[in-house]
From TrEMBL:
It comes from Halomonas huangheensis. Residues 145-177 are annotated as: Disordered. Plays a role in synthesis, processing and/or stability of 23S rRNA. GO terms for cellular component: cytosol. Transmembrane segments: none annotated. Keywords: Ribosome biogenesis. It comes from the Bacteria. This is Large ribosomal RNA subunit accumulation protein YceD. Coiled coil: none annotated. Belongs to the DUF177 domain family.
């Protein structure tokens, strides 16, 4: 169980040269782009990082992150608990040109002035690891499948990915008419 905070900025080339390990917690509430994607979050992401120079001389970070998020159910838009975990392999590059030389197994991260914005990297990885869509179990979702299909004619069944608001609007229209 991690208790310490991950540092916000590090000098990754030094850490790679010494094959250092870093782990720690990152507050989810500080992640503005994550909040934009899935709404405000509480708690921490747990992060484990190994800095290394690989056999080809590349400076790399092998990492793992885990977080318990509250993601909006696609059907009712209410938040639901979702455990997210991701393993990743990052290649450190000092320019965008060098990123093109990395094998596809490595995600490039840009190091400027020997500094790496570690929290930005963790946030990027967390956003990449988000599931595309999440749904409550039908029994637990305030918007049941029956509700979705009862007001649904051809239009809805052709567009099952429509906004839940559209469905609610249609349901309302049906009861009024
Ligand atoms: Zn739901």
């Amino acid at each position: 169980m991690l208790t310490s905070r991950l540092p916000g900025r590090v000098e990754p080339y030094k850490l790679a040269a010494h094959a250092e390990h870093l782990d720690g917690l990152v507050a989810l509430a500080d992640m503005g782009r994550l909040t934009d994607e899935v709404g405000a979050q509480q708690g921490d992401a747990s992060v484990w990082l190994e800095f290394a120079i690989d056999a080809q001389g590349r400076r790399v970070i092998r990492g793992r992150l885990e977080a318990d998020l509250q993601l909006p159910c696609r059907r009712c838009l209410e938040p639901m608990a979702q455990h997210v975990a991701s393993d990743f392999l990052l290649g450190l590059v000092s320019s965008d040109d060098l990123a093109a030389d990395l094998p596809s197994t490595h995600e490039p991260v840009l190091v400027e002035n020997e500094q790496l914005d570690l929290l930005g990297v963790v946030e990027d990885e967390l956003i990449l690891s988000l599931p595309q869509v999440v749904y409550h179990d039908e029994s637990a979702c305030p918007v049941s499948r029956e509700q979705l299909s009862s007001g649904a004619d051809a239009e809805a069944s052709e567009a099952p990915s429509g906004s839940p608001f559209d469905v609610l609007k249609r349901l309302k229209g049906n009861t009024e008419s």
